[in-house]
Amino acid sequence: MEVAIFWLLAVIIIASAAATVFSKNIIYSAFSLLFSFLGVAGIYAMLSADFLAVTQIMVYVGGILTLILFGVMLTNRITMMSLKTDVFNFIPGLTIAAVMLAGLLYVIWVTGTWASDSPAAWDTTVETIGTLTITRFLLPFEVVAILLLIAVVGASFIARKDKQKIQS
Amino acid sequence: MESLTLNHFLTLSAVLFSLGVFGVMTRRNAVVVLMGIELMLNSANINLIAFSRYNGNMDGQMLAIFVIVLAAAEAAVALAIILNLYSNYNTVNLDEVDQLKE
Amino acid sequence: MTQETLIQAAIAVLLLPLVSYLVQLAAGRRLPRQGDWLATGFLGLAFVLALTIALYFLSAFDQTLVYSANFQWLNLGKDWSIQIGLKLDNLSAVTLAMVTLISFLVHLFSIAYLHDDDRYATYFGYLGLFTFSMLGIVLSDNLFSMYMFWELVGLSSYLLIGFWFHKKEAAAASTKAFVTNRIGDIGMWLGILILWSQFYTVNLDEIASGIQNGQFTLSTGWLTLGGILLFMGAVGKSAQFPLHVWLPDAMEGPTPVSALIHAATMVAAGVYFIARVFIILTPDALTVIAVVGAFTAFMAATMALTQNDIKRILAYSTVSQLGYMIMGLGVGAYSAAVFHLFTHAFFKAALFLGSGAVIYAMHHEQDIREMGGLRKKLPVTFVTYLIATSALAGLPLFSGFLSKDAIIAGGWGWASFQGGGWYTLIPSLGLAAALLTAFYMGRQVFLVFFGEPRNQDKFDHAHEVPAVMWIPLVVLSVLSLFPVFSLNPLAGDSGWFMNLIPSLQSVVPGVDGAARLAGLAELTHHAHWTTVVSSILMTLTGLAIAFVIYMKKAVDADKLAASLRPLYLMSFNKWYFDELYEVTVVRGNIVLAKVSAFFDTFVIDFLVNVTGFIVGFFGLLVRKFQTGKVQSYIAFAVIGILVFFVLKGIL
After folding, report:
1. Positive or negative torsion for Cα C275, C281, C282, C288
2. pLDDT digits over B12-27, tens only?
């Protein structure tokens, strides 16, 4: 059962990820990405990371994907221009990606000596994560908070419409 | 059917990562490049959580949370940059933005 | 006075001119009267201090009295350190007084001579710098700081000779002086290095005791070479053959500068330096020195015969007299040579300042053929000039006679000590030079001060110089009289000076210093009276010839010149040395420069261009990778990572 679910999710993730990068239509890419993210969330759940699975859905699907869709809308004039986009450097890119995949698989399957037994699954991780966040990971947590603030300010500053610039 | 091992998740992550790399390197549209980067980050997260699960250690999950936060921040800033790029060059096709050559 | 007080006083004497230089340079133009009173006052103070020191040494009258102080200036690791410091003995004490006195008088004289110059303040600053460097040489107890001050003297003389640099000749003369001096200095530096390589010290006393103890491990030939190389420095500074050419040209500088630098101090530095290293010179090196000195004395005297510029005559005379001193050192007449250094400093400074007064009175006319009859117009200048001339020509009752006579007597003593033969040529050249000296000085005095004015217009406008100019003349000419140095007008070696600074004993191994010293003294003493008689005869003959030709006009000078045309031309053109150097050294340098330029253009530049071309070529190749597309860069980065991992896996 578990294995079957894994393969199902894996197929969904890889197929939609492939659709994302190979599709010529940006809107298709964006929606394939949605399925990819959802699949990854499922994988998280399988790995008994329930909190992260929820976070994945909320942040990626609810936040990042929406942002990306806004990006698509704002940078392509839907009425005038087709949303088609093509690839370039197709063969070299494919070659490099294939070599990389081969290298990674070689490392994982041949040279890797991983712990293969599966420990008991955690019940829920929310409490543990909460505790860790304000104890051991307090400093990174605060730093990340500041980083987010900076990112918000910076992004809104960069994206601000400069009236003189936009004329040219 | 054998049971699930760490290698299953790692392989999935590797495939996803390679697809992300391919997308980043070959797509002309900057928004799709951004999508490729998100795929790569997701594959990294799968790795982290898988290792966390099989080592019985929560650190990987904590790191994954920070990765998600960074991904959100990165997406926001990247989109801001893309918008700016669009207003300056009137295109988001990266092969047309080659002023770095000069 | 204690030793500390003396050393402190000496340091004050050394530093006062430096302070004067710095003040003049920084604020001279803003001071009232452009600070001439300040510079002169500083020098006056320095003179008083130096005189006190000298009087202390005179009253002690101890030939071996030495006070010194030094400190480590630079540590070169191991036990190699450079100690610099100062040394006060009889020689440096009296030289200190002499230099500060003449510098002070020159300052005084310059107040009138340069009063309307644009760079009046700067001039006094340069004088201060020069005096400081000269005093540094005098006080140094080691070769290293001596060399530094030596170069400073070169620099400040360059500045002073080229003081009127807007004149093309002055600029050229200053460059010539500097370059010529540099040639000598290179030799001096090499000599210092030879000594350093043996003893790892620059202190003169330590070097001397090292040589005496046989620590000089190289052969005696090396010591001779070292001595000759050190002598090269003196050849440059003291304008000896073959580097004498700069001194006459240096007359382009202001006349008080000529008096200070080219009569009393800078050129004397070479002689002083040889006197300082005298005890470590081997007999072979001393022979070379004697030959060079005697030849220079004679050669320069012949050159002076036919010059028409009043200062140039004095310049050649200076070269000739310096030749005497060098010859005196070479023949071992150490104290006679140092004695001549002193007497010459006073009477030659008097002559130069006197000529400056004449030039000033004649409104910057320097040609003696335009003068004449000036004794009525310039009585004080005339009298002082006459005294100084008598001293230079070597008339009895004047200081020059005492010292010159002692040198020539030393020459005869040395010649017989060496066993006669060609060695007698050295004192003979000295005697011949004495005759020539008397002749050209007589010619100058007769043409300038006697007879009828040849340029009535300039004569009418001439007038006696102001007091600040004639007071130095009077002081210097009084110091040129015999009682100042010796009560016996015919024997210098009975005077205080030669007793205070006796001849030194050589420390060179293989030479019996004591026996040599005693032998030379004995033979010199034997030669004394013959020398007195012969040199008086020579001087009188020279003066008589000058009198007959230029005063009585019994023989027409032009006709004489015409009948001896080749000799006349040789003298008039200074033995064609300038032309010779022009053809050999200057042209040779130009050819060398052209060869270097050719090499630079066609070899160095070629290599550089080829390098640039190769780099450019590869740049063109690599440029293809710089597409400006971000994704290509990412691709390269990923490829790089992959290559790295693959290699990591393989290796």
Report:
1. negative
2. 999 999 999 998 888 8
